[in-house]
Structures are given as structure tokens and as C-alpha cells.
Design a protein that fits this description.
Elements (H helix, E strand, L loop, with lengths): L3 E5 L5 E7 L10 E9 L5 E6 L10 E2 L2 E4 L6 H13 L12 E5 L2 E9 L14 E7 L1 H10 L7 H12 L13
Helix pairs in contact: 2-3
GO molecular function: hydrolase activity
Organism: Candidatus Fimiplasma intestinipullorum
Protein name: NUDIX domain-containing protein
Length: 179
């Protein structure tokens, strides 16, 4: 299936025209990517293993879900769609804001954090994308990165995700101000 993306400027304002997936994003243009890290109440992250035939990071483990927003989608719509497509988990992100946005060459990556106990056997994996899922602690993911079996995210990024998941209601603050 061909994918088309909306084009944004550096200020994240939608521009006219669309990009076809696989075409180099022109200089000064950007597209939107979304990721969600789903944590259980034990503080473990749901991770997925990419299919061996998947282009880019094939066979490696990754954070819960991620993908590009399609033309016409908001960040929230894209996140809901990606969760449903990749792991069969239905969650409405309509009234959610990303916990952070990371800028990369050619795009914006909205990252959502979700705390919810989800049974692995309740998930339906997309066979074109995902071969397995499981829960992993911060230490396990960092070890998997060292072993070369997890996408090589910066360890500090993984540590930040876990730290933020413990205090999602506080944002960047680690505890409430004492009065």
C-alpha cells in the first residue's frame, strides 16, 4: 500500500502538497512521525520485535509502536491507527497530547506515554510488521541495546522514557513542590 504524508514547515504548519513514502523529504519540509510507549503498572514497557523482512531495523526489538502520520491525519489519529494496526490495541488518543516531540532531520516525532495493563494474549500482531511482543524493564532494554538486538536508541532516551512514565502527571518535574 502506498503511503502519502502531509508536508509541514519548520514551525509545524501544514503546507500544500503531499509526499510519497520513500521519496526524500525536500530541504525545509518535514513530515510527522508518532511513537507510543505503553507501560504496565509494574513499570515495564511493552516492546515489539520487528519482522525479519521489514525494511529498516529488521528483526530488532523496538518500543511499543511507531510510524508515520498519513496525509490528513492529526498526530492523535495517527497514534490511534498505528496502535490498532501494529498490535491490535485500540485506544483513542483524541484528547491526548504528546508527552514530548523530538525533532529529527526531515520531521517531527510525537511521543506518547500510556500506563495501562494490557495482556499480551489480547493483542493481535500485524504480520507485515511485528513478529513478537513482550514486556521489558529499563535494565532489560538497555541490555538488549548493548547486545545489538534492540534498535540502538541512546540509553539516556530510554532512561528518560522510564523516568517520565513514573510521573506522567508531573511532566518534567520529578515530584510535587513541598509546601
Amino acid at each position: 500500500m502506498l503511503e502519502y504524508w502531509d508536508i509541514y514547515d519548520v514551525h509545524r504548519q501544514k503546507q500544500s502538497g503531499i509526499l510519497k513514502r520513500g521519496v526524500t523529504v525536500p530541504e525545509g519540509a518535514y513530515h510527522m512521525v508518532v511513537h507510543c510507549c505503553l507501560f504496565n503498572t509494574n513499570g515495564e514497557m511493552l516492546i515489539q520485535q520487528r519482522q525479519p523482512f521489514k525494511q529498516g531495523w529488521s528483526n530488532l526489538w523496538d518500543i511499543t509502536v511507531g510510524g508515520s502520520a498519513l496525509a490528513g491525519e492529526t498526530s492523535q489519529m495517527a497514534m490511534s491507527r498505528e496502535m490498532a494496526e501494529e498490535i491490535g490495541f485500540h485506544y483513542d488518543f483524541k484528547n491526548k497530547r504528546p508527552h514530548m516531540t523530538i525533532q529529527f532531520e526531515g520531521g517531527f516525532d510525537d511521543i506518547y506515554l500510556l500506563i495501562q495493563d494490557v495482556a499480551l494474549d489480547s493483542l493481535q500482531l500485524q504480520p507485515e510488521e511485528v513478529q513478537a511482543v513482550g514486556y521489558a524493564s529499563e535494565a532489560e532494554i538497555l541490555h538488549m541495546i548493548e547486545e545489538g538486538i534492540f534498535i540502538p536508541y541512546y540509553p539516556s532516551f530510554i532512561q528518560m522514557l522510564f523516568a517520565m512514565a513514573k510521573t506522567t502527571h508531573l511532566g518534567m518535574i520529578s515530584k510535587l513542590e513541598e509546601k
